[in-house]
Amino acid sequence: MSVLAHEGTHPILYGRYDFPRGSGHSPGYLARPDQAGQYPAVLVLADGGLRAFHKDLGRRLARHGLAVLAVDLTSATGYAVGQVGEAHGFLMSADVDWVIKQHLGIIGFGEAGGTALVYAADHPEVRAVSMISTVLPDDGPVASALERLAVPVFGLYGAVDAPGSGVDDERLLRGSFVTYSGVGGGFMDDGAVDYDTAASADAFRRLIDFFARFLPAPLIDNLG
Fold this sequence. Notes:
By secondary structure, the protein is α/β, with parallel strands linked by helices. Helices cover 27% and strands 32% of the residues. Helix 2 (77-91) packs across helix 3. The radius of gyration is 16 Å and the shape is globular.
């Protein structure tokens, strides 16, 4: 792994990481603090392939004390939920000693936000879910999950794409939402045509605050 030292709150380790999946491995991207200790884990779920933006987001979150694994999901919700489970299982396994167990956060982009909700509805270890530009359908697995979802959910949307997206959906009893005026759904992705610098910076700050509220604080070893 590459080492990025002395940038942000924590120095970090980051790079491609193939985590166990069935009898093989699945490609992912890992970013975590480069300090002895245990850290709250967050999965970043990408719905259209892992892009530079998802990797950069993982590094930025890691500098704020989170252990982040970015995962490229397939488009089929049922299969994607299985992929989330395998990534989650890896982070919580005995082989990983740098994660605080029984606590997980998830960030899902687009359709992957729906997958995050489906997974969270059946896994109480998931303590916080953020969905970015995710449409909440009226039926299907996601709609069914909303009926039993107890986890805090934070939605971020661009107002241009927000109509009909499920923003402020009353089915999310513990949901909160922010909609950015005048921007589209790719407002956080600096590789997208509708990227917006101000909205992206504000959304990132709110994500950090959200996970700090619902995930435990890092447990940093004192080696002095």
